[in-house]
Structure formats: structure tokens, C-alpha cells
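Comment thread on ticket #2218

A.B. wrote:
> Attaching the input chain for the structure job we discussed in standup.
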Amino acid sequence: MNSLKIVIPIFVAITIVVIIFNLTQNEIIEERVPKIENPSEIENILDKIRIDKLDNDSSDKPYIPNERKWIQSGPFKIDRDEYVLGEKIFINIEELDKTTKGQMVFYKQINNTHSFTYEEIPFDGSKPQQNYYLGINLDKFRNICTVDKLIGDWQVIFSGTNYENLEFKIIKQIIPGMEEKFEPVC
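C.D. wrote:
> Ran it. Output below, let me know if you need it in another format.
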């Protein structure tokens, strides 16, 4: 009988703790999941995607992504040698030596006297390997005002290593639906 007096309050306390825990977890999950306030907003986005697809399919030169053609320098790979405006560059690093550190420098030569560095991405073989996506876009803070500055031959330089540079090209074609992102910004 004495043990029953001890067990019942413990059972009640555990039940209350479990209920409170479940309620707080539900609140946390609700905070993390974005609520759709306006379903018509989603419908508008879907309509734009449908229109862009129809425009692409009916254009003289429809956008069809090139097959991945991995080009490699040591443990570094990028997924293509040619990109259109709006495509992201996928960078894969495989089995980088633990002592290797440096930066991937995305670099564009404009002419014999002018060039610019678009992005520098650090790498460190002592840390877990990562893959990256890099979008090449207009940016008024970098003084990249028009697509003319993006189009042409690019290089990825692996500073801090002896790996060969990777070369790729950006051509003057825009992924349908992304035309607004490539309007002049300066």
C-alpha cells in the first residue's frame, strides 16, 4: 500500500512532464514550418513557371541544360566547361590531402590589362570535404553592372597548391525566367 502511494505520484509527474514536452515540441515545429499565408501567391509563382516553360519550349533557341561534363584538376572538379547566365557552377572536392589549404579563386580576364576576381572560396583538407554551388550574377557592389562583364572565358585558380587551373566559359544565353536578374544594375 505504501509503495502504491509512491508510484501513483511518480506516474502522474511523468505523465505531466511528457504532456508538457509534447506541447512544447509542437510549438517548436510550428515555428520552424513556414505558414502559407496567401495560397494565391504560390499559384502566381506556379503560373509564372508554366509561362516561362511555354516561352522556352516555343523559342527559337530553347534552353536545354548541357549534360554534366566534369573537368578536373587534382581533387577539384566543376560540372561543365560552359555555362549559360543563371546556371550555377557545381564544385566538387574529392579526397583532398589533409595538409592542403588554400582558396579557389574564380577569375575572369577581361582583356590584356584588366581582370577581376569574382569569388574566393577557402578549402582546408583537415576539415570535412564540402561541395559548393556558385552562381555568377550581376553585382553593383563588385562593379559588375551588365552581362557583358560576365560573358567570356573564366578560370578557377587553386591558390596555395600546384594544381592546374580549370577553365570554363559563360555564354550569352539566359535561363528562361531569369531575364530580370540580368538587367543592368548600375
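A.B. wrote:
> Thanks. Noting for the ticket: The first strand starts at residue 71 and ends at 73.
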